[in-house]
Amino acid sequence: MPRTVALIRGVGGPTALKMPALREVLASAGVGEVETLQVAGNVVLDAAGRASDDIAQAIRDAVRGAFGFDLPVVVRTHAQLVDTVIRNPWADAAEGRWVQTVFLDGRPASVALALPDGILDEAVLDGREVFVRYPEGIGGSKLQAGWFEKRLGVVGTARNANTIAKLIAMSA
After folding, report:
1. How far is CA 74 from CA 51, 60, 95, 124, in A?
2. Of 10, 46, 109, 167, which has fewest CB within 10 angstroms of its CB?
3. In what order do the strands lie in the sheet with 129-133?
4. Helix pair angle (161-171, 78-87), 10° resolution
5. Are 145 and 158 in contact (CB under 8 A)?
C-alpha cells in the first residue's frame, strides 16, 4: 500500500534534527513507523486513514514538543508526488538537482506569478506546487521557497527532482 510523505520545512543549521531522534519522537507521537531520507526533514509514513492536515499538525506538534522548533510541515500522498512529476514541465531535465518543486501548504490566493526581470530561472505555479528550473544553479537565485511564500501568501518547502524521485520510490 502506498505511503505518505511529510516534508518538514527549515530543517538544518540552527534547527538541525537528528533523524534517528526524529523517527523516535514521531513514533512516540502516534504517527507510526516512519522512515527518513537525508537530513532535510523528509519523512515517509503510513497515513492509516488520517487526513493530511492531521498528519502535518501531529508532526509539527511533536517536533515543537521534543526539539523546541516550530517548523511547518507539508504532506503529500504517494499519488500526489507522482502527479507533481507528471505536471512538472522540467521533470526530464538532465540536471535534477537544479529542478525543484516548491510544495505549498495550501492553494495560493493569487494564481499570477510574476518573476523578476532579467533572470534566467523559470517558474510555473500549478495548484499547490511551484515548479522551478535553475539553468545556472540554485545557489545565487532569488527564486527560493521564501520568495514564493511572500508573493503567494502560503507556506512552502522545496525539494529537488532527485529527492522527489527517491521519496516516490520510498513511498511506493
Report:
1. 12, 10, 25, 19
2. 109
3. 122-126, 129-133, 99-104, 156-160
4. 150
5. yes
